[in-house]
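Q: Could you fold this chain for me?
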Amino acid sequence: MLLAPKTGLVLLGFLLSGFCLLAQTDSASTKSNPIQPKEYLPVSIGYYGNLAVHPGFKLGMDYNLFMIEKTKAKKRKTKVIRKLLYVQPNLSYYVHPKSHSAFQFNLEAGWRRYNTKLYYTEVAIAAGYLRKFNRGETYITDANGNVTSTKKGTSRGYFSPTLSFGGGKIFQTNTFSFSLFTRLNAHLITGYNSGTVVDASWELGTRLTPNFGFKNKRLKVKEK
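A: Sure. Below is the predicted structure, expressed as structure tokens.
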């Protein structure tokens, strides 16, 4: 199951444009709660590169659980630090030309820290299922050492936990709020040729809150 890299990037562009048009919000809600300006679940979309250079895309949806907000008053300004706990189901896809393509579904839990200017850093862990689709013929060896070509086994699934580190920034206008982010991911692929291997990926994307979709409960905020 392969998509041409150019086709995938064009599709990503259309998706980004559509989300921008559908994510307009009012200025009051944006200013009062920039982390979750509306009642719908935030959606993230962006470039997903296996080993950074094998192109693909990733879609995710955040469910914000609760936030800790700490305010420090100083002589000339007030410093606000926000810490957010969230869970996110996400789906990624990439193409390794002339080798394989792959889907991965993750269930992720993460912790974000925002400063006063709405820059943030995050760390997350995830449990995932990776499915690789090989390109070309697949060969198998039987108990007698005979090698045969077969269409069976052209795809295979793996359990793949992930550890992620990232950062980004929320941008605000009078009618629009979105964030840009980048992430580095380290993956463990278990049961790969009777062993476990380490893989990596890089992301560059945006997070928006559209005017439709699944509704989130009101974000619980604990002030300190």
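A (continued): The domain at 5-223 is CATH 2.40.160.20 (Porin).
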